[in-house]
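Lab notebook, bench 4. Still working through the backlog of constructs that have no structural model yet. Next entry is a single chain of 198 residues. Request: give me the structure tokens for it.
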Amino acid sequence: MGIGAAAVRLPQWWREQRKQLISIVVAVCAIYGLIIVGTYAKTRNVKTVMKLVFGATGMSKKFVHYLRPNKAHLQQRITNARAIGEHVGHSTNVAFMTEDFGKFLQYEGQLSGGYYPEKGIDGAADGEPPTVDAIAAYVTEKFPDGPDYFVVTAVNAYNQQETLRTYLARFPILVQEEGYMIFDTRATSAPISPQDPS
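Model written out:
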């Protein structure tokens, strides 16, 4: 069956099936609505309901931020990103551990470089955290000459990764403000390489 034949048969198929299809869609929406109302009645937590809605529809939770942004929070993110850009001299060689794969930081801070995953990199075995050597190898792969700076705005994720903190402890902190940290990875007396036994 060609595209032309399918286009001719589609209106006929719709006329024959529309009552059944509409009934199915209405039933699914009604069940889904009951689940949402029940969840809200049980938890009285709008965030839980929104997670349920976004999870079922496949939308990102951040979609709400674009509909009704928290202006104070957004303004703080813009201010931080621009300050970070100034601190690193709008470098094009920055490693960053940040939300949204660093797109917001790169745009507002007028810098570029490579993203370090918030969840970290894979360890040697499933479920195990990476070693300091594995982190060094990952950074070396992304930045053969080493990044000029390592910027952290995902502070909670950073605090949960002990080996990343160990890796970055070798570098001086250029700036530490509420909401971000900048490590000067150019300045260190003990540069780490993947072969470093420590």
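Notes after review: The mean pLDDT is 81. The radius of gyration is 24 Å. Flag for follow-up if needed.
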